[in-house]
């Protein structure tokens, strides 16, 4: 086993989870729109209040001179995994290796039995699980989370109102459950990251003119059937989207550089001006760009394809975009 104490990262750290709305595919578009001050090393603090799979976090820390980073997410399960990778990656790898060796050789029916047994244990422990204090119990929990993420349908993490994970098993021939080299690389990146569970507004105390903040909230649904906001038991609806736009304006007044991603209503309704109303009309200097993204999570394969998404910044995009 590769030890985390080996200082040289073996590979570039990438997201360790499949995640609805993950930004790996949009990294180049996001990179083009980063503030000039960050690229020149004048901004050295990075904050991501909705961290998700961390694609932007890993990209920025490895490419630019970020000295300190702060991440938040309201999903305690997700934050637990980040904590464990940061503090106990070798023990996490041992458990994931065991699960992978047990799961991969099984028949389809045996895999189903194994998967649903893991899902039941994960859900049964929820009511008594101690998220507040770090300890060995979190390592097994993180391993269960990664296993379910890697083997469930479309890698979708979805919970009901009680917080119970309710995604069925996916159909994968040879899923990667233990990506050892990447977990080691992620461990190295996370050494300069402060990990926090909580509401996005808790980041306010760390935001100043030397800060770049990237918001990647649960997207505003394009239709009732495309609502993927229930990745935690807390809803993120229209009211919450408006509150976020007001918070964006509040942070703008600190002098920080801000970027936000969200869905583009014009994909389904050209007359829906929600983001122009709540961002551009509040401050004409805000810049709203359209970028193409691929919709990968849909039960109907014919509905997967390129659609527009929005990137909103509180500064002029520094480079000419093709």
Task: Describe the model.
- Helices cover 35% and strands 13% of the residues.
- A seven-stranded mixed β-sheet has the order 3-2-1-4-5-7-6, sandwiched between helices.
- The chain starts with 26 loop residues before the first helix and ends in a 9-residue tail after the last strand.
- The chain has a single domain (1-322), classed as Vaccinia Virus protein VP39 (Rossmann fold).
- By secondary structure, it is an alpha/beta fold.
- The chain is built from nine helices and seven strands, in the order H-H-E-H-E-H-H-H-H-E-E-H-E-H-E-E.
- Helix 4 crosses helix 6 (136-151) and helix 5 (108-124) packs across helix 6.
What is the helical fraction, as a range of percent? 25-40%
- CATH superfamily annotation: Vaccinia Virus protein VP39
End-to-end CA span = 44 Å
Q: Could you tell me the CATH topology label.
A: Rossmann fold
Given as residue ranges, the uncertain stretches (5+ residues, pLDDT < 50) are 227-231, 297-303
Strand order of the largest sheet: 3-2-1-4-5-7-6
Domain tally: 1
Give the DSSP E fraction (strand runs of 2 or more residues): 5-15%
Cα-atom Rg, whole angstroms? 20 Å
> What gross morphology would you assign?
globular
Specify the number of helices.
Answer: 9
**From N to C, what is the helix and strand string?**
HHEHEHHHHEEHEHEE
The pLDDT mean sits at 90
């Amino acid at each position: 086993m590769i030890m985390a104490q080996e200082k040289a990262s073996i590979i570039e750290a990438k997201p360790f989870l499949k995640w609805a709305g993950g930004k790996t595919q949009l990294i180049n578009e996001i990179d083009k729109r980063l503030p000039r001050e960050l690229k020149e090393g004048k901004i050295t603090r990075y904050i991501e209040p909705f961290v998700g799979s961390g694609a932007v976090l890993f990209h920025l820390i490895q490419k630019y001179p970020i000295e300190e980073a702060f991440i938040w997410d309201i999903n305690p399960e997700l934050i637990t995994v980040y904590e464990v990778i940061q503090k106990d990656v070798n023990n996490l790898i041992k458990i994931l290796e065991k699960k992978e060796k047990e799961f991969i050789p099984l028949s389809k029916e045996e895999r189903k039995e194994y998967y649903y047994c893991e899902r039941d244990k994960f859900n049964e422990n929820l009511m008594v699980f101690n998220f507040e204090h770090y300890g060995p119990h979190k390592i097994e929990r993180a391993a269960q989370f990664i296993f379910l993420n890697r083997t469930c349908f479309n890698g979708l993490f979805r919970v009901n109102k009680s917080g119970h994970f309710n995604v069925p098993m996916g159909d994968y021939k040879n899923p990667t459950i233990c990506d050892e080299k990447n977990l080691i690389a992620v461990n190295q990146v996370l050494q300069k990251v402060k990990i926090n569970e909580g509401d996005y507004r808790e980041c306010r105390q760390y935001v100043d003119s030397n800060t770049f903040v990237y918001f990647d909230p649960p997207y505003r649904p394009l239709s009732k059937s495309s609502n993927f906001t229930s990745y935690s038991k807390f809803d993120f609806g229209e009211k919450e989207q408006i509150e976020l736009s007001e918070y964006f304006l509040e942070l703008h007044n600190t002098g920080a550089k801000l970027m936000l991603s969200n869905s583009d209503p014009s994909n389904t309704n050209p007359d829906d001006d929600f983001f122009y109303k709540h961002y551009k009309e509040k401050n004409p200097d805000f810049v709203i760009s359209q970028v193409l993204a691929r919709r990968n999570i849909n039960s109907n394969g014919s509905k997967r394809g390129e659609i527009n998404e929005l990137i909103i910044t509180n500064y002029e995009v520094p480079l000419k975009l093709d």
